Amino acid sequence: MQFELTVNGERRRVDEDPQTPLLWVLRDSLHLTGSKYGCGKAQCGACTVHLEGRPVRSCSVPVASVGSRRIETIEAATGSPAGPEARALTRAWVDGNVPQCGFCQSGQIMSAIALLRERPNPSDQDIDRAMSGNICRCATYSRIRAGIHTAAASLRSGAA
Ligand code: FES
Ligand code: FES
Fold it and tell me: 18: which DSSP letter?
């Protein structure tokens, strides 16, 4: 069945089984491989993308349910030109050496972007709540939290 999706600001036509998870459409059909497969059960967050600006687990979103909603992936969020939240976060990630193996990090960044758009000055509890669905097997959680605080501070100061 044919679907017309809005992915990273472009209209993309795909031919898929309606139940195909959005993650596989992005990775296999559209070759956007920044979103990762971890669990396939909405449990790890590695596949996080934005749907109408909200983070979703794309492994558990059937392509038929997307409709005309805007999809944004890590490629556009941190590409050129990146939004201010993504710029601040990627700088903080690099400066704070946040990633270890890196596998979970595109999902972490997508959740963190959504958090900072909603809460420019998040508390530790806000961060823990927003990031609780993003698992890191390398346990980089304290660096992720510090990176989000750094990015939020730089956004508030106008440095990002
Ligand atoms: S692969 Fe989607 S949440 Fe784990
Ligand atoms: S950096 Fe390795 S899983 Fe998160």
Answer: T
Task: Please tell me if the CB atom of residue 129 comes closer than 6 angstroms to any atom of ligand 2.
Answer: no
Tens digits of per-residue pLDDT, 97-117?
A: 999 999 999 999 999 999 999
Protein fold of 2-77 = Ubiquitin-like (UB roll) (3.10.20)
Nearest ligand for residue 55 CA: 1
- pLDDT value of residue 154: 96
- What is the average pLDDT across 50-78? 96
32, with CB counted inside 10 A (0-12, 13-18, 19+), is buried
- The pLDDT of residue 77 is 83
Q: Would the CB of 1 count as within 6 Å of ligand 2?
A: no
Superfamily of domain 80-157: [2Fe-2S]-binding domain (1.10.150.120)
List pocket residues of ligand 1, CB cut-off 6 Å: 37-40, 42-47, 57, 59
Residues 6+ apart with CB under 8 A from 28: none
